[in-house]
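W.,

You were right to be curious about this one. When I first looked at the sequence I had no strong expectations either way, so I just let the prediction run and decided to look at it fresh. Below is the sequence, 349 residues in total, followed by the output.
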Amino acid sequence: MECMNPGGTGKDRAALFIIKRAEEEQRLPKSCDGGGGIVVEGTSGSTGISLAMLCNTRNHQLIVVLPDDQSPDKAALLRNHGAIVKIVSNCAISNPNHYVNVARKTAHELSGEQQQGHGRQTIFSDQFENEANFQAHYQTTGPEIWNQTQGQLDAFVMSSGTGGTISGVGRYLTEQNPDISIVLVDPPGSSLYNKVKYGVAYVSEQSERVLKRHRYDTLAEGIGLDRVTQNLTLGLGCISDAVRVQDQEAVDMAHWLLRNEGLFVGSSSAMNIVGAVRVASGLQPGKRVVTVACDNGERHLSRFWNRDFIVGERGLIWPGRDEHVDMNANHKVDEIQQQRIPECLKLFL
């Protein structure tokens, strides 16, 4: 339940390792010396929120470049944490206006000012390529899972955004036991599934894109990618299989979890859990599968947990009670509250 961390996601781990390494390498002033540096990041939101909390405690200013396909809730939360937020159109990484490239350019310009004798020490935290991200999960998340399961697990199932979690955890776990399966969960429009299965990071959606087009292939936020990052590369050899999860499956699972387990999860968590159930369905009884609930639903109210968005904009089915049903009409309660059972769970129910 990484969504129970202070920042609401597992990104707290990577953010802490990134900032502490920059301070240790004197690329940022240490908090014990008063802090006062600038951290720049291009993020889909969660890493930015974790960085914002940590920057506040260490007296650094955070500048976040955010793609416009993310929930407005994240931008509002970042600003409330004191971050400077710049929102840009989402596009291919080859485009100089991609949010990561804009963040890198911003950090470079600010660093140039500091080198000329004015301005503050500035870093581009570079969560996708910064190996401190991988190390955070190799040194903490992986050992925690191993210890909490007492080494009794058969598979670790996880989606990939930066690749830090699945690579760091996967590398650590397979070093302890090479028989543990590390399985990637990938949403529509991402090329990582094909990279794991066939060795080629490409999907057909990429051929349809142009530089100015938004990438709205999936409603999942923060996972899936059209390139292989350095953090993913560090553990790519440990990933033995991949599963593709569709948006409707994630929506169905999220609503099922809320009504049956009382868990209000976000889109990434829902996809991870669908993937874990799929993997478990192919194993013998008694086997143990671990995944990560990496985000909660509170940051997804305007998209993933918004009926109008799910039905009207995405063309998906809204599970559970229809809020537009006339409760004064002659409807049976069990019909009104009927919920969709996630396809992957039908084998177990």
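Here's what jumped out at me. Residues 131-148 form the longest helix (18 residues). And, maybe more interesting for your project: The radius of gyration is 21 Å.

Coffee later to discuss?

I.
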